[in-house]
Amino acid sequence: MPRRMLEVAPNRFWVVDMGSWEPNQGRLIELRVGQVGDAGPRAQTRVLLDRLDRPFGMVGAPDGRIYVAEASRVWRLAPGAPLRPDAVIDGLPADGAHPLKEIVFGGPGRLFIGVGSATDACRDAAGRQTLPCPEMSGERPRAAVYEALLAGPRQTLHSLRPFATGLRNSLALAWLPQTRTLLQGENSIDYPDAGAPPEELNLLRDGADYGWPACVGARRPARGYADPPCARTTAPLKLWPAHAAPLHALALPTEHRSPFAGQLLVAWHGHRAAGHRVVGFPLDADGVPSGAPIEWLRERPRSRGGAFAPAGVAVAMSGALLVADDRNRRILMLVRER
Fold first, then answer.
1. Which end of the chain is more exposed for a tag (fewer CB within 10 A), N or C?
2. For the domain with range 51-334, which CATH number is right: 2.40.10.240, 2.170.270.10, 2.160.20.80, 2.120.10.30?
């Protein structure tokens, strides 16, 4: 189940493979890609680390080290050094419906971590939905994006605190350095309806509440909650199709040497009609995603194998787009026509 890819040297990628939803089945894999020929790129793989606990997020730090997020911890290592993971953060919640962790840097020493909710809509064992949601209480609430500050010569953890709350499952986080903006793709409550509720693109602000579990979409009451204070929550930047399931977001600067320059690329993983595709949103003069999505890659269900399910994207130094398709356990490469 490949989830993330990162080019650590030309044509050399690290791949986070979750393995399965069972603990300690994940791996860190190195993928080396040769010249692209008529039959596609020649590739070689080797396992760097195994027995990882549901790894998901992976990001390069400003100092060149690579950070990887397992269900309960974040660690780092350097691509050219002996592979000895250096623990950065331990003790993150790894139980419940949303144990996976996404990470993104917001400049040197500032790491954002998505911590998902333990339940779909904060229902207890009897099916009751109460406010305030117990998951949102205390110093370390669930359904939040955390800010970790790293300091000192070894960049050790200085502080960890909730940055934004009311976010059910933040598996798509993107930092826009030109505007110092943090974007989040929200995987909303799982209604049985095909067309509701919408997924969201949120611009995260320090201390803001984005509504989960009582509010969805354009600050509308969620099912099961009578007259919640949705007007006090922060509205989304954009609404996306229901069940699109954004699992990764990657912002590329306008000077990037690829067809995807100046776009926010998003992997829509969802199993319904809105999913199965990679889309791009042009960034406007203020660095905000705008306009209709550009559909970069889409595949219809096949007679053999499962439907295309993009979980992560990467743009290589060559300008090629790599896509992790976790349902079919493969990595696709989109290249220019020769």
1. C
2. 2.120.10.30
